[in-house]
Structure formats: structure tokens, C-alpha cells
Specification:
The complex is a heterodimer of chains A (about 220) and B (about 280).
Chain A: H1 2-22, H2 42-73, H3 79-98, H4 106-141, H5 147-162, H6 165-170, H7 180-189, H8 191-215
Helix pairs in contact in A: 2-3, 3-4, 5-7, 7-8
Chain B: H1 2-6, H2 13-29, H3 41-51, E1 58-63, H4 70-86, E2 91-96, H5 102-116, E3 125-131, H6 136-148, H7 150-153, H8 167-171, E4 178-184, H9 191-200, E5 204-208, H10 217-222, E6 227-230, H11 231-241, H12 247-282
Helix pairs in contact in B: 2-12, 3-11, 4-5, 4-11, 6-9, 11-12
Classes of the chains: A mainly alpha (about 220), B alpha/beta (about 280).
Chain lengths: ~220, ~280
Amino acid sequence: MTRRIVWTITFIGGLFFLLEFLLPEQAPEWLGGIKNPLTPYLGGVTNFLVVVATMAFLLGPFILLRSHVGNLVRRRQGWLEGLVFVVFLAASLLAAALREEQVRSVLSVLYDALFFGVLMAFFASSMALLAFYLVSAAHRAFRVSSLEAGLMMAAAAIVLLGQVPLGDWLTQGLPKSLQLASVTQWILGVPNTAVQRAVMIGACGGAFVAGFRQWLGLGKGAS
Amino acid sequence: MVQWLARLHELNPRWLYLATGLLMIVPFVILIPMPAGTPSRATQGLYDAIESCPPDKVVWIDSSWDQGSRAENEAQLGCVVRHLCRRHVRFVVTSVGITPFGPEFAERTIRPIAEEAGYVYGRDWVNTGFVQAPTSTSLALVINGLARDFHSIRPADVHGTPIGDLALMQKVRTIRDIHLIYAITYSPAQEWISFIKGQFGTPVAFGCMSIMAPSYYAFLDSGQLCGVLVGNRGAAQYEALIGRPSLGTRLSMAQSFGNAAIILAALVGNLGLWAARRARSKAP
């Protein structure tokens, strides 16, 4: 029964968006020039979608909270991490919901400290680590063991240098067509574009079929 | 010599980390002059699109990035906002899907530039905040909804002010009031192309991370994207076009040495492996 309800909502929603998109804004004069009857409802239906999406977004914190509070109450392994999570979640929610913009208060200081002091620092550190991982991976794993691997490395080196000023500086004495920036643009604009198009055509066909199956309730677990 | 080179294969990664760190920090401390390079077709396209903006239209910026891609997206947003302010083009900022931190980062980047240019919030620019759209399908539908009737999807701005009370938003209701859409994030969604350029013909431009740029060249080639700022390189080229080198120029210098470190590491690793194999084959 639940599945039928979900499928019915999916089908009606899909039909609404499809028809609203395909029907012209206004019918030709010989058809009476009537406006698309679905367009006035577009805002409301899209807002419904945003509300449902937000509810789905809230599931993540709820599941995390349930798991961590369980660990905390029963003093299971990882209870300390659970405590950190609960404290930060509560403090962030409190600071974000109750602070008044343009007013300097304890809550706005707490918000800035959590957002810019803690979260940004964590984000930046984890992203900055990628640079070191990349260099380490290039040293340990990028092996020129065949002609194809050699070609790939050559293309990667050209594109890596062609997208930064160092590449311009290294080849500024060469004719324009041989400069790294020009060769990079050629690699990205010709062979890369051809491959990207081929991949996109295949992927879009797959996405179309998957979407159609989901809409008609033929997808896995839909019936 | 071969024995010495073979040691490169087993090089302690800590030396690599140290070299990488130094290579990327030094350009921030010592300014190394390097050519800005000729702006690519992708950069020039965005610049030309903003230059051709008529006075009665506005630019829609979708700034959906946070700390994860700040290293490249911040400069891409800053240089374009500076150009808009210089040309007195008004703009509306959204953060559709991707990250709820988008409006906060956008505000912190835009406000100082806008205030320096004498822009007044609500009259010359508006930040409409985050719209939830976690999947590509919902993203497409939200983009479509905003384009058809902006006010019904975003009834208030990021500060909670009713959108109808903002002077600029009284003139911006649908996509017909928009001259250009500039979407900046780690990897802008192709739904902007199909639902905006495809449906209404409004020009679309992207600002993306360097590693995601290859996906967009096909759209540049077909004219479905009027421009793309590719990483800090794109931002640096844009800053050169508006004659104000700043964050993008400085960061692209550091990126130069970071990219060089990756290539050097691969070369050293391969050289070491070759030498190690050669040493083993010569061993009695």
C-alpha cells in the first residue's frame, strides 16, 4: 500500500513537471491562445519539492544523533566522540537559530567561533591534505609502464603546466602554437571534448531510461 | 649513479611533503613575477558577456561553494563582482543546492567589494540565500521554478526580509529580467544549461575548479556556455582583463608550484623505479 502511494505521488509529480515543461507558455491564436494551465501551480509544487528535500536532508542529523546519543547513554565505544558531536550540534543550532544579525552578542561570537574558527579550519585542513596526497600518489603510483601510460602522463603534465603561469613562463620564447597554454587548450578543446561528448551521450541515454523506469514504477523496489 | 638514483624510489614521503609545503608557501611570501598569459576564449567569453549587459538587466550569480572549493571559487566570485560593480551592473545572488554554507561565503566575499564600490544592499545587489535541492532532478526543478517565478520560490532574502520589499527584486521577477547567469561551485550542474540556456536562451557562464573544467569544454564549443572561469588561472586572467590583479593572481602562482611538484614527484618516482630495476638486473 505504502509503495502504491509513493508511486502515485511520483507519477503525478513527474507528469506535472513533464507537461508543464512541454506545453507552450501560450497556445496559438487558432487554439484560443489559452495560457499553460499548469504554470500557475509551478511555484507551489516546486516549494513542496523543496520541503520534501529538506525533510530528507534532516534525516542525516537525526540518524547521527540517535546513534551518538545511544553510545553516550550506554557508555559504549565511541561515547566521547558522541559527546563532542552532541555538544557541537547543540551549540551550532543554538548560535545559528538565536543570534541576531548585525548585533554583537555572545551567540554571534559563538557562531563566528564555531563557523569560522572550527568548521573552516577543519575544512581547509582536510582539503589542503589533498595536495600532499596527490604528490605522494604521483611519486608512488604513477608508473610509466606502457605507451598508453606514457601518453597519459605527457598529457597530464602538459595540462597541469598549461593551466598555470609557470607554463607560460617556461615556454614564452616558443611560437604561440607551441606554447604550453595553446597546447593545453587544444588538448581540452579537441580530444577531450570528443571523449566528453561520447561519455555524455551514453550517460544521458542511461539517465533517461532510469528516470522513465522510476516514473512508471518499473524501477527496482518500486512495485 | 644508478644506485643513488634507485634510492629515489624508496624516498621517505616526509621529504616530499616538506618540498610540497615549501613550494606552495614560498610564492605567498616572495612575489614571483610571471606572465599573466593571454586570456583564454573561456575567460574572454564571460568578460564580454558582462560588458554587453544592458542597464535594465541584472546578472544572476549562483554562488554555491564553501571551504572545500574556496581556494579557487572565492577568486572567481571576487573578480566578477568587481567587474560588475565597475560597470554598475546590479546582481542577484542565490545558492541553489550543493551547500547550505553558500550564502555565508558569498556574503563575506561580495560585501566588502560591493561596499567599496558604493553598492547598496537591496538596491544594487541582493543575496537570496540557500534553496534546498539535494539531487540533480530537484536542482533542475528548482532552477526551472526560479526562472519562471523567482518570488514564489524565494519569498525572503538571506536576512529574512520579504523579497518584495527589496527595491531591486521589485524589478526582477523572472528570467526575462536576467542578462546572464554565472554559476560558481566545485562543478556547476549542467541543469543550468538545459533549463536556462536551452529553455529561455539566457546566456550561462560557469566558474569551476580546474580539475572539473574538461567536462565543460564541449558546451563552450557548442555555444551553450558563453564563458567559463577555470580555477585560479581563469580568475587571474579575468583580473588581468579588468586591470586589478588580486587573489586569483596570487593563488595561481602557488598553484603553479603545486602542479610542478606533482609532475616532479611522478618523474622522480619513475626514475627511481627505473634505476632500481637496472641495479637489480646488474646485481650478481
